[in-house]
Write a structure and sequence with these properties.
The protein is an alpha+beta fold. It contains 9 helices and 19 strands. Strands 9, 12, 15, 16, 17, 18 and 19 form a 7-stranded mixed sheet that branches. A 4-stranded antiparallel sheet has the order 1-8-6-3, with no helix packed on it. A 4-stranded antiparallel sheet has the order 5-4-2-7. Strand 10 and strand 11 form a beta hairpin. Helix 7 crosses helix 8 and helix 7 crosses helix 9. The radius of gyration is 30 Å and the shape is flat. The chain starts with a strand and ends in a 10-residue tail after the last helix.
Length: 427
């Protein structure tokens, strides 16, 4: 019998993917649960298994084609008794994302190659490996080797005047002076006008991320509001307890669990912040699945810590640590990156003082946490040094008004600035 392979559901909010690689070619024998094709989504890569034993008859789409959920992508001839596979199980789907291989710079024309330039310029732009080989091949002092590296000189080309032909510092200086003299004697010489540029096609994961960000940016009317937070008391609390907690429980509590809890407390009075907008309906969540942006090279993934409202600071810290490790090891499952109700991105960990993060559809808000800096501030009429951080809340202005968002952010910061009033109850 003939069987049409279709794209199954690939996780919440995922509506399409890109064909990365056909794992079964036309004419190949296929067994139940054999991977047929690799699909790349904006979250992870997934291998689609076969539902039957049979033979791959025809591919209906080519590699690099964008396909939607439910679309037919191939035809199989099912041979003999039909044996159906297990239901498509997203918990066992491989999650390795493939980063595009580094692209090589275009090969320059022969007359402008590094070798040609080397011959014409006496090593000014010679290949560094060759320079190092030349330096190591000649016995010389550290001063001579350092001078040679600084001026890109292959010491095998320098005439040594020392004992047994040993090259001295003065020999290298004379070589440099002579080389400059050649440049003056040949005033018509010009360095080739090379445009040192590497052109890298935007493909693979980077392309999918860019398309997802464009859809989010142009669908959601983003507005970002900023406010300062005095993190001094949180820092003091961590200094007092973090080592003890790590020793007893094996996890080091960062600032992120505190922020997660502050979001939960503040959202009790401003519940629309923790919601999703789907099909013109606002789904206000009574639970908090908080996404945590994790950067990997030039890609980003957002693992989700589920039901933070039911967890202690310690448990949230453990979950964040475990999911970050999985993200870096590329072993996240679909259920660990879907279902988020609000997200946090820590740009401060990379030194940013401010940012305007893009909301992840269908959520309506994302919180940006930034670098903590010691600053002079006025407290009770006196100038004191405090640890200050900027928070930026991007919100969907279709459903969240500016005043509502500003009040939520201020309330959240008030919790962070006074941790003693609540921390001991949620550790």
């Amino acid at each position: 019998m003939e069987y049409k392979v279709i794209i199954p559901p690939l996780g919440e909010s995922v509506i399409e993917g890109t064909i990365v690689k056909w794992l079964k070619n036309e004419g190949d024998t296929v067994k139940v649960d054999d991977p047929l094709v690799e699909i790349m989504t904006d979250k992870i890569n997934i291998e689609i298994p076969s539902s039957y034993n049979g033979v791959m008859k025809k591919h209906l789409v080519d590699i690099d084609t964008v396909v939607e959920i439910g679309q037919e992508i191939a035809i199989m001839d099912v041979e003999g008794e039909v044996t159906e596979s297990k239901t498509f199980d997203t918990s066992s789907v491989p999650t390795k994302e493939k980063i595009p291989p580094e692209q090589k710079a275009p090969v320059p024309a022969e007359e402008f190659s590094e070798t040609a330039i080397h011959h014409r310029c006496e090593g000014i732009h010679a290949d560094e490996n060759a320079i190092d080989a030349g330096i190591k091949a000649i016995k010389s002092s550290p001063v001579v080797r350092g001078l040679a590296r600084e001026h890109f000189i292959d010491l095998r080309k320098v005439h040594g005047t020392g004992k047994n032909g040993r090259i001295s510092k003065n020999d290298v200086i004379k070589y440099i002076d002579a080389r400059h003299t050649v440049d003056i004697v040949n005033p018509d010489f010009q360095f080739p006008d090379l445009e040192l540029e590497e052109i890298i096609p935007v493909t693979g994961v980077r392309k999918v991320i860019s398309e997802h960000m464009v859809k989010s940016a142009f669908t959601i009317p983003h507005v970002t509001t900023f406010d300062e937070c005095d993190m001094t008391r949180i820092i003091a609390w961590r200094k007092r307890y973090v080592d003890k907690i790590e020793k007893e429980h094996g996890v080091r509590i960062t600032f992120m669990p505190f922020i997660a809890k502050a979001i939960i407390f503040a959202a009790k009075d401003f519940p629309w912040i923790n919601s999703t907008l789907e099909d013109d309906k606002l789904h206000v969540k009574k639970y908090f699945n908080i996404g945590m942006a994790v950067s990997r090279d030039n890609s980003l993934i957002v693992p989700v810590i589920k039901h933070c409202e039911q967890k202690s600071l310690l448990q949230i810290a453990k979950d964040m640590h475990d999911l970050a490790d999985k993200a870096n090891a590329e072993t996240l499952k679909i259920e660990e990156i879907t279902g988020g109700t609000i997200s946090i991105t820590n740009a401060g960990g990379m030194g940013a003082l401010a940012s305007t993060p893009i909301i992840s559809k269908p959520q309506v808000a994302i919180l940006g946490f930034h670098k903590i800096v010691e600053q002079p501030v006025v407290r009770d009429g006196e100038i004191v040094i405090r640890h200050i951080s900027n928070f930026g809340l991007s919100f969907d202005h279709r459903v969240v008004d500016g005043g509502y968002a500003v009040q939520f952010l201020r309330r959240m910061i008030e919790y962070l600035e006074d941790p003693d009033s609540w921390v001991l109850g949620v550790v």
